[in-house]
Write a sequence for this structure.
């Protein structure tokens, strides 16, 4: 093992043996995954590993854990591990059979899935690379917690989710993602459980857990959730034979559905934001007008009618059709009733029983509108549902510190001596900090380019200047570039220039986020040498393209959060009330972590080399720029394109080995 791996492994082992919380920043190339997995194996305890993305979850399960299992087998010690994802990630055999029986034309995507379904042992749809994750066909072939028949399903014995959970119950190490972990935490708060009992949780990409935790312990009500409930309510109990009881059911159901639909339409029409440009806006007390209150009461009453109808049907349900057993209809009716009650509860949380320590906002996406409410700070949520419940907690990532300090992260998580964001008392257990720098030789492997003369980011000339820089830089590296943006507006503006008047200066394949799914774009990027990909938020982290395929990372702006973002505003106000400074204590460290993530896309292995271009002039003209640059890898900085060209040409084909090798 490398020196950094041994150090991290020893720290994780100590945390697992003695309990407490370990904060471990391990730079790219440290080998952190094998370090913490080895410690987990040697501990003999049940360990849950939680990742921010399914991509890292799959990497851990397909690359590192099989290697560790092979080493364990060589020692004569069995080592069982399991991967567990949310229910909608698995093929539902019942839905598959229904779709297969009803398809009038054989879609290519379905044929690919059918071939895979005949052989798969896991049912994990990530195994089907030629069908995109966001292909609409998956909606017809998967279920959610609300639509699954559970123990009443006639195919329960062949259920992939049941198998996955059984495997997780037997395993020493279970790999999940943050969303499933906090879904389990929320279920446990109500007395249930999704994951097996565990003594240890290791959060990889731990910088993301605060936001995820806040989401799962909040409330949400949207046009899509209401529409999904009404769609399933309409399909319940349909029988082509049309008997007398069936017609009675149809009439009662149609009336209840119409009540809910009309009431929801009325409520959401009152709550749609006037500003169409902003997709996420505050939803404060001023939005709760008498008209909104009246329409909320109407929706509450309508949902109660629907809930009572399906609760009654769960006691004496009609057949859902010739092939549906009565017990399945019973379960469906009960779930529909519970879903209606859950929407009533969410609406009350958002529109009636408001809390001072929550932030409320609304999001729009096309015609969809969603109302959100969630804790401003995740500290208390994490204390009650993780730190006080699990004896050993490891928080690790390549980016946990801002300016070399864990202070910001500790405040976000409510485990800091000087926390100003929460009144959660400091956890009495030992809290250990460990920071391991990357072993890569950034001095020889990379250059950080800070061009002179760039217009300010809010200047109308900024997109033109960015496009010019992209052309000049891509000419040096022959494409092979990620161009990362902080906003879709700038992305579209620069793409229009590169794909239009400047296209002759960029003779490389050009891709843009939104043209296809993320996985499809990455496949295309890897398959076509020289590709230039323009992307926004989802490509700043969790993307791994080692080798010469990615040789240039361009970042347009410092990734400050939008100043009018409701969550950022609420956290800033809370900071001010506690005597803090929103810019230095919140906005700057948040931007530093995000910038580190974006920069970290370039050097992924010891043979990687390339150029990191930071086009925001504030990095060199504002005082805080020095703090942001100090958080980045120690690559030499350049402001001259010819110096970059010389660096690139001089080092072609020379690997960037760790120092001392």
């Amino acid at each position: 093992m490398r020196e950094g791996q041994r150090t991290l492994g020893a720290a994780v082992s100590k945390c697992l043996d003695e309990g407490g919380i370990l904060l471990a920043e391990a730079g790219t190339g440290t080998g952190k995954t094998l370090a913490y997995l080895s410690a987990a194996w040697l501990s003999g305890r049940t360990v849950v590993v939680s990742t921010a993305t399914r991509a890292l979850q799959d990497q851990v399960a397909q690359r590192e854990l099989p290697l560790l299992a092979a080493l364990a087998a060589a020692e004569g010690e069995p080592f069982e591990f399991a991967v567990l994802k949310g229910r909608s990630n698995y093929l539902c055999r019942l839905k598959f059979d229904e779709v297969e029986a009803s398809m009038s034309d054989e879609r290519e995507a379905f044929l690919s899935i059918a071939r895979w379904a005949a052989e798969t042992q896991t049912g994990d749809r990530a195994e089907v690379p030629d069908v995109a994750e966001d292909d609409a066909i998956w909606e017809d072939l998967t279920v959610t917690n609300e639509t699954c028949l559970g123990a009443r399903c006639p195919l329960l014995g062949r259920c992939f989710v049941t198998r996955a959970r059984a495997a997780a119950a037997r395993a020493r190490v279970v790999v999940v993602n943050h969303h499933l972990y906090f879904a389990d935490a929320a279920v446990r708060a109500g007395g249930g459980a999704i994951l097996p009992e565990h003594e240890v949780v290791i959060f990889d990409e731990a910088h993301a857990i605060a936001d995820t935790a806040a989401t799962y312990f909040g409330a949400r009500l949207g046009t899509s959730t209401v529409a999904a409930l009404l769609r399933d309510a309409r399909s319940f109990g349909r029988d082509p034979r049309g008997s007398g009881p069936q017609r009675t059911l149809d009439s009662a159901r149609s009336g209840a559905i119409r009540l809910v639909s009309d009431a929801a339409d009325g409520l959401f029409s009152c709550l749609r934001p006037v500003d169409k440009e902003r997709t996420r806006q505050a939803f404060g007390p001023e939005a709760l007008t008498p008209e909104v209150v009246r329409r909320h009461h109407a929706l509450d009453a309508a949902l109660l009618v629907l809930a009572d109808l399906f609760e009654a049907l769960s006691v004496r349900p009609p057949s859902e059709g010739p092939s549906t057993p009565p017990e399945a209809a019973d379960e469906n009716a009960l779930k529909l009733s519970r879903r209606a009650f859950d929407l009533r509860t969410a609406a009350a949380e958002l529109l009636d029983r408001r809390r001072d320590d929550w932030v409320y906002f609304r999001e729009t996406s096309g015609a969809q509108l969603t109302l959100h409410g969630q804790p401003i700070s995740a500290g208390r949520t994490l204390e009650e549902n993780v730190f006080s419940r699990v004896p050993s907690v490891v928080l690790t990532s390549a980016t946990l510190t801002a300016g070399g300090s864990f202070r910001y992260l500790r405040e976000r998580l409510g485990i800091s001596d000087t926390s100003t964001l929460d009144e959660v008392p400091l956890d009495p257990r030992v809290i250990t900090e460990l920071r391991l720098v990357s072993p890569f030789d950034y001095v020889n492997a990379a250059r950080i380019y800070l061009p002179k003369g760039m217009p300010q980011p809010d200047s109308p000339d900024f997109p033109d200047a960015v496009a010019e820089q992209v052309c000049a830089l891509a000419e040096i590296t022959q494409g092979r570039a990620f161009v990362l943006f902080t906003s879709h507006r700038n992305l579209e503006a620069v793409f229009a220039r590169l794909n239009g008047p400047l296209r002759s200066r960029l003779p490389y394949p050009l891709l843009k986020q939104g043209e296809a799914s993320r996985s499809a774009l990455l496949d295309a990027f890897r398959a076509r040498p020289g590709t230039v990909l323009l992307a926004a938020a989802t490509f700043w982290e969790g993307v791994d393209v080692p080798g010469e395929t990615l040789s240039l990372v361009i970042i347009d702006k410092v990734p400050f959060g939008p100043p009018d973002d409701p969550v950022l505003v609420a956290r800033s106000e809370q900071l001010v009330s506690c005597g803090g400074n929103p810019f230095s204590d919140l906005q700057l460290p948040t931007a530093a972590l995000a910038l580190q993530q974006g920069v970290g896309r370039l050097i992924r292995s010891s043979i990687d080399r390339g150029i990191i271009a930071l086009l925001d002039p504030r990095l060199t003209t504002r005082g805080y720029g020095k703090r942001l640059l100090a958080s980045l890898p120690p690559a030499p900085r350049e402001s001259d394109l010819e110096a970059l060209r010389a660096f690139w040409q001089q080092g072609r084909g020379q690997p960037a080995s760790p120092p001392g090798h």
In short: Residues 244-271 form the longest helix (28 residues). The first strand starts at residue 20 and ends at 26. The radius of gyration is 27 Å.
